[in-house]
Write a structure and sequence with these properties.
This protein is an alpha/beta fold. About 55% of the residues lie in helices and about 10% in strands. It has 3 domains: about 150 residues, P-loop containing nucleotide triphosphate hydrolases (Rossmann fold); about 60 residues, Helicase, Ruva Protein, domain 3; about 80 residues, Zinc Finger, Delta Prime, domain 3.
Amino acid sequence: MDIDLWTEKYRPQTLSGIVGQDSVIEKLVKFVKNKTLPHCLFAGPPGTSKTTAAMALARDLFGDSFDRNFMELNASDERGIDVVRNQIKNFARVMPSGDAPFKILVLDEADHLTGDAQHALRRTMESYAVSCRMILICNYSSRIIPPIQSRCAVFKFSRLGDDAIASRIEYIAKMEMVTLQSKGLESILYLARGDMRAAINLLQAASSTGEKITSEIIFAISGLADPERIRKMISSAREGKYDVSLKILDELVYQQGVSPVDLVRQMHREILNIEMTGQQMMNILERTAEAEFRISEGASGEVQLAALLANFRPE
C-alpha cells in the first residue's frame, strides 16, 4: 500500500482518537460541544496531529455534511495571492449546507504563503467570518504576519511522547499482522523523535521487507546509523583508541552510506548524554557545530568528522 494511503488509513476520525495533545484537544472538544469556533492557528513541529486535529474537529462538528462544508488547501503548492482571491474567497462566501453553523477551510502549511497572500487573506477572514471559519496550520507561527495571528486563537502542538507513539505503532502492527520486535519499536521511537508521521512511515517501509521488524531493518531503511555504533565511536575516541574510532567512522560513511551531515547530527544527540565537565561539553558542542556548518558548505565530511573525533582525545 502507498505510504500516504497507509498513513491516511490510520488517521483518527474524531478528536477523541488523537493522543499526546490533551490540553489542545480539550479546548477543541469544547468548541464542538458549543458548536462554535473562532479562526484558529495550529502551530508546532511536523507529525504532531495538527492536520488530523483540524479534520477530526470538522467531522465532529458536521457529521454527514462534512464533505459539503469542509475544504483543505495546501499552501506549499498554491501560495500566491490568486489563491486567496479565487479559491479561498469563492469557498468562504457560500453559506454552509444543511444545519452546519459555518464551513471550515483548512489552510495547511500556511507559513509558505507569500506576504501579499497573507495580507489579502486577513480581509477575507473578516468579511466572511459568518459563513466560514479558517484553520491555518504551520510549523513556525513566527512566519505568519501579526495581523493574521491577532485574528486567530493560537494552539501550540508539542512533540508527541514516546508512550503515545508506541501505543499507536503497536496498534497498527497488530491490525496489519506485522511482527514488531521490542528493539524495532525502540529504534522507531529513536528516529521519529516525537513525529507520528515519521514513525508510521518507518513502520510501513520496514513491513514491506516481509520480515520481522528488527532494529537492524529500521536503521537500514532509514539511512541513519545505529546509536550504539555512534556511542562506540565516541567512547573509543575518548579512550584514546583513535584507530578504532576511525574504523567505525569509515564503516558508517562508506559501507553503510550514512550521510556525514546526518552523522554529525546524530553525534550531537549522543554527546548531550555524555558525562563531562561543563567546559568540555561547551568545547565539544562548539566543534560539532563548526563541523556541521563546514560539511553543509561543501567541505569533506570524512575529514571534518575525523577532526571532530580528535577533539574527544583524553586530557
